[in-house]
Amino acid sequence: MTTSAPPSLPAHTTDEVRSVLADPLLQELHHGLGGPYHLLFPGRFDTNAAAFRAAMAQAGVDGQIYFAKKANKAAVYVERAAALGLGVDVASHGELREALAHGVRGTDVVVTGPAKSEQLLRVAVLQGALVAVDALDELDRVLAVASDVGRTARVLLRRLPSVQPHSRFGLDAGETEAALRRCADRDGAVDLEGFSFHLSGYDVRQRADLAGESVRLCRRARELGLRADRVSIGGGFAVDYVGARDWRRFSEEQRPEHYHAGKAFSGFYPYHSPVAGADALRAVLAATPAGEHASLAGLLRSAGVRLLVEPGRALLDQAGCTVFAVQGVKEREGYAILTVDGTSLSLSEQWFESEYLPEPVLVPGTPYGDRDGPYPACVGAATCLESDLLTWRKVPFPVRPAAGDLLVYLNTAGYQMDSNESPFHELPLPPKVVIEHPVDQSAAARPRWRLDRHP
């Protein structure tokens, strides 16, 4: 065994996921699909959306939620957004096409991202989508498109955050003032609805401060006769993947010997967050921005400004997981190397030079019998790349894994399961399976499934 036991880091989960873990469905799906797959839980998406709406209502703030589509390519989440009356945040023509095709109205789409293509801008203006303008030359192109198609372009001006001056996104103070004057001079071609910003990280104070600054910019824009009645604070609402005690113990005890080949990482996503999801939005709304004497919620109400938020990961919290089958077990000194039937491209963190730390759940293919445990093992991919490991950490599994067992990585819907997927080695992309629990909650009622309609 290793000189010290690797710390365990179990993931939070839900009753819905636990019921699926205990159901023969997982093995049936693996047999039928012939490889790894993703599970999607649209009911959880609905629950998370309701929590964000409740946070706004409790603060007395008028607002709109846009699902950041980049967080997951599945069709079902866009379908749910349309059914719930949510907007969708897109950054490409393909994402815009998908949103419209699955029932989202053009007026409920916000188009973000830098240097948008002519095709994307044209369709956005024609459909009445809200466009977050990232640069002065982009504003000129939006105005040209609006003139060409005979429509008024709805725009937000994206500000460069003063706390992140080296960001490649947004307009600085001088550019913002120039953009305001161009909008005022082109009345009828453009409707300036307000301001937005892209802020990396999860700092509540910084987000509240920038939102307060944006409210002040709305007042400045109104002096020029512009509408300016909404502010987008983007996403950046953390997700709480693991418990506080487990995260603290892991952070204190983890060391290179707990990873295959002594692998070391420069940093990890903050997998435990004491203020996450809709609670993080509550915290932002309750904060008093720098230079103000009222909470952000109070500022928004008094200025008559609507709040726009663009959560991705936070709307997908507990809304999906990823399943691989163990194909082989190789013994090393004190631990095993498992090889599964997929790649780390379907668990994106590795390709960002980091590690997805919430540990997978072992679902036995056959009864445990007399298998020894706990048993540490890392998880390698079915490729020829030395560095292609899904989990470098030697996870302390309850028993020794065996070929035919399943590994279920929990809570992977937010960015993990498809951000970097590729049919490397001609391996097919893992299909997405939508899980729907029947209304009948009796013990005999089993979850139903269907394939997501995204190709």
The biggest sheet, with number of strands, parallel, antiparallel or mixed sense and barrel status, is: 9 strands, mixed
CATH architecture verdict of the largest domain: Alpha-Beta Barrel
Tally the helices: what do you get?
Answer: 12
Distance between the termini: 45 Å
The overall pLDDT, averaged over residues, is 94
The quaternary organization reads as single chain
| Class from secondary-structure proportions | alpha/beta
**Remind me, CATH topology of the largest domain?**
TIM Barrel
User: What coarse outline follows from CA principal-axis ratios?
Assistant: elongated
Number of strands: 17
The residue ranges in which pLDDT falls below 50 over 5 or more consecutive positions are none
- In CATH terms, the superfamily of the largest domain is Alanine racemase
Q: What's the CATH class of the largest domain, please? A: Alpha Beta
The percent range for strand residues is 15-25%
Descriptive report:
There is one protein chain. By secondary structure, this protein is α/β, with parallel strands linked by helices. The protein has two domains: 15-41 and 318-451, Lyase, Ornithine Decarboxylase, Chain A, domain 1; 42-238 and 275-315, TIM Barrel. The chain is 30% helix and 21% strand. It is built from twelve helices and 17 strands. It has helices spanning 15-21, 25-33, 42-58, 75-84, 93-101, 118-127, 136-149, 173-185, 204-223, 244-253, 277-286, 296-303; strands at 37-40, 63-68, 87-90, 109-111, 130-133, 153-159, 190-197, 230-232, 306-309, 320-332, 335-340, 361-363, 375-380, 389-397, 406-410, 432-436, 448-451. Strands 1, 10, 11, 12, 13, 14, 15, 16 and 17 form a nine-stranded mixed β-sheet that branches. Strands 2-3-4-5-6-7-8-9 form an eight-stranded parallel barrel, surrounded by seven helices. The radius of gyration is 24 Å and the shape is elongated. It starts with 14 loop residues before the first helix and ends with a strand.
